[in-house]
Automatic annotation (TrEMBL):
UniProt name for this protein: Delta-aminolevulinic acid dehydratase
Substrates-to-products reaction catalysed: 2 5-aminolevulinate = porphobilinogen + 2 H2O + H(+)
Residues annotated as binding Zn(2+): C130, C132, C140
Basic and acidic residues biased stretches: 9-19
Organism, as annotated: Deinococcus aquiradiocola
Region (Disordered) residue spans: 1-25
GO cellular component: cytosol
């Protein structure tokens, strides 16, 4: 193949500054990258149910509901890939108006946590602390009537969320992660943990959580679709703007949150940046089920290169300011990063 030497440019100011010089080879590009990405920054969401077999989730290709034994095996696989953290979402065999299986010592999250920690002490187990998967109505706490409308009883929910967090900590959870968006939930949980002797257990707060359309596949997976209405009265309005996001994050930080989270991730990269700039607490981005499902659907249709798209998305979260990323892509992304290390 004949290669023609590049033409000599005119020596004007517009051509003396050449950013392409530092991007010419993979090694040159790696030399000055500002954003790092590693498997240790991923948190892998795992759905656990009381059945003895795995149940694939149709709306989330590659994701399943796992038995406790399956979750233990998956934790081992994650650790082998360098993914050191997972978050457990439980699907109970019984639901009631108060979500009692969420704080039952024999609840599915508690059983799975003990099993994973026994088998893999080095795995960081994060327990999702909420009630929506456990209530028969699908809302994040017991119900009451306000102004003629049925809604979640905020303060009654606080007591149950606190009981849930203590039960999860007692089972061995390394972190509890309240996601109900109840006013005062972090303070209630922090106080309960301290009083029960679990002052060492941190709280990862879903501080900035929007009433989003991107949660559909998760609700299929967890069986948590509300039986009436929606969660717009307690989750945040997508058009609420930065002030509301900063207010929610500030309240949780003041109440004792050890980590803050923004959920969903991709539609709110700007919010991640604003929260990052305003707070010095560790920040988590949740790359939610709908974001995952969209990529999978586009890949199956031949529209996207999965590896490039997923890793680019993870880099976007890091560039926006996230310290950690909760993502269903975690194991695949960890494999790809390992492959990249072997080829460099």
């Amino acid at each position: 193949m004949t290669v023609t030497p590049p033409a000599r440019p005119a020596r004007d100011a517009g051509l003396t500054d050449r950013p392409r010089r530092t991007r010419r080879t993979p090694a040159l590009r790696a030399l000055t990258r500002e954003v790092s990405l590693s498997a240790a920054q991923f948190i892998y969401p795992v759905f656990v149910h009381e059945e003895a077999h795995e149940v694939p989730i149709a709306t989330m290709p590659g994701v399943s509901r796992h038995s406790v034994e399956g979750a233990v095996r998956l934790a081992g696989e994650a650790l082998a890939l360098g993914v050191q953290s997972l978050v457990l979402f439980g699907i109970p065999g019984h639901k009631d108006a108060h979500g009692s299986q969420a704080y039952d010592e024999g609840g599915i999250i508690q059983v799975a946590t003990r099993a994973i920690k026994d088998a893999h002490p080095g795995m960081t187990v994060i327990a999702d602390t909420c009630l929506c998967e456990y209530t028969d109505h699908g809302h994040c706490g017991p119900l009451c009537e306000v102004g003629g409308e049925v809604t979640v009883d905020n303060d009654a929910a606080l007591e149950l969320l606190a009981r849930t967090a203590v039960s999860q900590a007692r089972a061995g959870a390394d972190i509890v992660a309240p996601s109900a968006m109840m006013d005062g939930q972090v303070a209630a949980i922090r106080s309960a943990l301290d009083e029960a002797g679990y002052g060492h257990v941190p709280v990862m707060s879903y501080a900035v959580k929007y009433a989003s359309g991107y949660y559909g596949p998760f609700r299929d997976a967890a069986g948590s679709t509300p039986s009436f209405g929606d969660r717009g009265s307690y989750q945040m309005d997508p058009a609420g703007g930065y002030r509301e996001a900063l207010r929610e994050a500030r309240l949780d930080a003041e109440q004792g949150a050890d980590y803050l989270m923004v959920k969903p991730g991709l539609p709110y990269l700007d919010v991640i940046r604003v929260v990052r700039d305003a707070f010095d607490l560790p920040l988590v981005a949740y790359n939610v089920s709908g974001e995952y499902a969209m990529v999978k659907a586009a890949v199956q249709a031949g529209m996207l290169d999965e590896r490039r798209t997923v890793l680019e998305t993870m880099i976007a979260f890091r560039r926006a300011g996230a310290d950690a990323i909760m993502t269903y892509h975690a194991l695949d992304a960890a494999r790809w990063l390992r492959e990249d290390m072997k080829t460099t």
